[in-house]
Amino acid sequence: MKYWIIILLFLTSVNIFAQPSDSWPIFRGDQKLNGLSKSSIPESPKLKWTFETGDNIKSAPVVAEGKVVVGSTDGIVYCLNTEGELLWKFETTNSIEAPALIVDKTIYIGNLDGMLYALSLDSGEKLWEYECENQIIGSANWWKSGDKTRIVVGSYDYYLHCVDAQTGEGLWKYESDNFINGAPACENGMAMFGGCDGYLHLVDIASGKLIKKVDVATYVASSVAAEVDKAYIGDYDGRFFQVDLKSDETTWVWEDENTHLQFIASPAIIGDKVLTANYNKFLYCFNKNTGEKLWEYNTGRNVEASPVVVQNKVIVANMRGDLIIVNLSDGKPVWKYEIGGQIISNPAIAGGQIYVGAFDGNVYCFGK
């Protein structure tokens, strides 16, 4: 019995420590968009470097293979090393607001012309491009089945598009009833997104067929966080809720009785907690099973950027340009840095460093 317990503990520890801590390849960290970093950060991070782009940064940075990739509203994709040095840049035809996705040393990123580009992570060479009929605001996501990797991305043309990752060939399009603003979460072969049509859509990634859609009543601007048979969503009417994907029912709903302002930030999930931030300036932590509010923290200004959890801390940014770290346990602030330019996209945490873009056009890196 002791032998099997030791083996089980060993396998568990291998699984935990084999998870990469130096990578943040999609804007919420993983395919389920859970906003959870496997890295660590210092108690009091210091500003290590800044890199200036040609215009505002609305796109969240991503990190993989020792490279930091971010798009700017100047229409350029920038690739830096982790010391802030420019490795290459690629110019597109319009402003970039969507975060990039990195899979197998390839970058996938969309712009406001509705073009989805595949670029070599090493060189910036364009591998292919795929055209949607309207702008791309949200990150692409991916799913691999057998030897085929599929890229899924939403557009303001009302469609969720599925593209072959290697060739850029369009495989299918699924039509919703309004704009698709956020990124689709990918879980168990399904792409899951909340649309501006007020529905939570679950689409089979292999076929593009609708599995089910759940009426969530109003406009959803943020991305959905998925976990097994549950989804967590915030809407434009200021409601935050859990949806049971088996029963197709909303199992709990929370809203601030006084503000009723929109949730643009996407949720983060860790253990029995789910966290999100609202345009009313507050970062919230809930019991994910019951919807009980465990704590709240007033950031001091409106929040659009999604919170990120790293170890026992939560990182949140606001539209005044404050980057803030609070305790996961009680929401008490432990560190703050005033960038001064609006931050509307969440930071990337990888290799012990925090990377964030701001409206002043700069990428900031914090670490030891």
What is the overall pLDDT average? 93
Give the end-to-end Cα distance, rounded to a whole number of Å.
44 Å
CATH topology call? Methylamine Dehydrogenase, Chain H
Cα-atom Rg, whole angstroms? 19 Å
Low-confidence region ranges? 1-19
Q: What's the short story on this structure?
A:
With 368 residues, the protein is mostly beta strands.
Architecture overview:
Strand 19 and strand 20 (230-234) form a beta hairpin. The protein has one helix at 2-18; strands at residues 36-37, 46-52, 62-64, 67-71, 76-81, 86-91, 101-103, 106-110, 115-120, 126-131, 141-145, 148-154, 159-164, 170-175, 185-187, 190-194, 199-204, 210-215, 225-227, 230-234, 239-244, 249-255, 268-270, 273-277, 282-287, 293-298, 308-310, 313-317, 322-327, 333-338, 348-350, 353-357, 362-367. The chain has a 5-stranded mixed beta sheet, with no helix packed on it. It is mainly β. The chain is 5% helix and 46% strand. The protein has one domain: 7 Propeller (Methylamine Dehydrogenase, Chain H), CATH 2.130.10.10. The longest helix has 17 residues, at 2-18.
Question: How are the SSEs placed, and which strands pair?
Answer:
Layout: H1 2-18, E1 36-37, E2 46-52, E3 62-64, E4 67-71, E5 76-81, E6 86-91, E7 101-103, E8 106-110, E9 115-120, E10 126-131, E11 141-145, E12 148-154, E13 159-164, E14 170-175, E15 185-187, E16 190-194, E17 199-204, E18 210-215, E19 225-227, E20 230-234, E21 239-244, E22 249-255, E23 268-270, E24 273-277, E25 282-287, E26 293-298, E27 308-310, E28 313-317, E29 322-327, E30 333-338, E31 348-350, E32 353-357, E33 362-367
Parallel strand pairs: 1-27
Antiparallel strand pairs: 2-33, 3-4, 4-5, 5-6, 7-8, 8-9, 9-10, 11-12, 12-13, 13-14, 15-16, 16-17, 17-18, 19-20, 20-21, 21-22, 23-24, 24-25, 25-26, 27-28, 28-29, 29-30, 31-32, 32-33
